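Help needed: design a sequence for this.
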């Protein structure tokens, strides 16, 4: 990274305000992490979308310095907190357009959704409050006073409880969602930066950025039952409830600590991009997404981790300084809040499907999917598995503005089953060079 790029990044983080970065310990820790990381580790290059990284990204302008994002899968709505303006931007997931901007408190620094009640919660670091937003009307219905400088918020839908991590008072506020009142205050480690909930075990996890630990809170008693040491300057935290696994980003060392929820021990450390902050889990796909705030280019990157192997399988280029990240498992879409470019990136995994999936030679088929650049040509080929011809073009189409595509054709009448009968259908983008495959079985 050039000096000018480094200075610009540090300048943004100094003026970025949830903990008054010019004076607070957490702010100094983050800036120190950046400087030390640059010196020790350099800056990894992000892998462009295309080829080995089959993802396409769209961009939604939301306002100055967004750093958190959350998804309501039930309504297909995305919420991004906009730090400078004190608003929460509301994005329609079907059209990727802003439908509303809700005024909340000062310096909103985290946002979470309760899908069961269609309620959104914004942690306002500058006013020591949590704003309660009605998702049906996009209006603030209550304002709850919590601890000093709340940095993040999380929801337990099973108990209708909200948790706010207060970076300035080293506490987690426990809010009753039915009454919008604080029912307990739990003391954790120094400068908690993020909080996440495991609804199955009724356990809450808070990252203590100044002590390199994670506090484990029993939701039934509101007491800290364990403290787990992780990597340097832990920031983001996310839970995979299906595997009882917790993922914590370590912003100084460019890593992710993997915690076994049953034993509260770190079982793996994964190297990702530089200065990772946000993290989100797709439980359906057993995939973890990490926002790497600095990547050494005018853009940032989101690392994609295979939860089964704890390995990075792709790096997707997004906007500048991605901070928060969220997953819509229903739509198979990922969202990154890009603090430096004032946008939310919509990350769409590329896919291909064939219908029917089997049939005789000459069978008519429809091939469809998503995740290709809008307007680019998508070519569908049938891979015979034979010496000649090796492939036959079934159809060609153009990707729609929402990255989807569809076209129809026929399996070659001369196709033969070969060794196993299963041959490949491949979709390839003409400009992105993205390739994705599925199979068609000859009968």
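Sure. Designed sequence:
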């Amino acid at each position: 990274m050039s000096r000018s790029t480094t200075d610009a990044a540090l300048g943004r983080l100094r003026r970025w305000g949830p903990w008054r970065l010019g004076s607070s310990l957490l702010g100094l820790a983050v800036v120190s992490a950046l400087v030390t990381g640059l010196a020790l580790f350099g800056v990894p290059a992000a892998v462009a979308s295309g080829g080995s990284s089959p993802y396409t990204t769209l961009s939604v302008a939301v306002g100055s310095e967004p750093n958190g994002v959350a998804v309501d899968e039930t309504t297909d709505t995305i919420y991004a907190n906009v730090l400078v303006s004190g608003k929460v931007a509301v994005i329609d997931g079907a059209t990727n357009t802003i439908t509303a901007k809700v005024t909340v408190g000062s310096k909103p620094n985290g946002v979470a959704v309760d899908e069961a009640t269609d309620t959104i919660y914004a942690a306002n670091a500058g006013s020591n409050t949590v704003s309660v937003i009605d998702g049906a009307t996009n209006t603030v219905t209550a304002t709850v006073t919590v601890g000093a400088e709340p940095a993040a918020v999380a929801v337990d839908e099973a108990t209708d409880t909200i948790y706010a991590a207060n970076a300035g008072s080293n506490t987690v506020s426990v809010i009753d969602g039915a009454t919008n009142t604080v029912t307990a205050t739990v003391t954790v480690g120094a400068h908690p930066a993020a909080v996440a909930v495991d609804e199955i075990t009724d356990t809450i996890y808070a990252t203590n950025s100044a002590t390199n630990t994670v506090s484990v809170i029993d939701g039934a008693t509101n007491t800290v039952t364990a403290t787990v040491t992780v990597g340097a300057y832990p920031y983001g935290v996310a839970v995979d409830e299906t595997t009882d696994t917790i993922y914590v980003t370590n912003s100084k060392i460019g890593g992710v600590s993997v915690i076994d929820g049953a034993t509260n021990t770190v079982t793996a450390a994964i190297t990702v991009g530089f200065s990772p902050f946000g993290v989100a889990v797709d439980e359906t796909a057993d995939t973890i997404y990490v926002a790497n705030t600095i990547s050494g280019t005018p853009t940032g990157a989101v690392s994609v981790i295979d939860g089964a192997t704890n390995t990075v399988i792709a790096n997707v280029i997004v906007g500048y300084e991605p901070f928060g990240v969220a997953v819509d498992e229903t739509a198979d879409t990922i969202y990154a809040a890009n603090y430096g470019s004032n946008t939310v990136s919509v990350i769409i995994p590329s896919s291909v499907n064939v219908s029917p999936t089997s049939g005789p030679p000459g069978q008519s088929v429809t091939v469809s999917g998503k995740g290709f650049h809008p307007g680019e040509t998508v070519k569908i080929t049938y891979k015979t598995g034979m010496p000649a011809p090796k492939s036959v073009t079934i159809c060609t189409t153009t990707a729609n503005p929402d990255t989807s595509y569809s076209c129809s054709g026929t399996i070659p009448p001369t196709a033969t089953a070969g060794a196993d009968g299963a041959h490949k259908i491949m979709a390839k983008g003409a400009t992105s060079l993205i390739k994705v495959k599925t199979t068609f079985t000859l009968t």
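The two ends are 56 Å apart (CA to CA).
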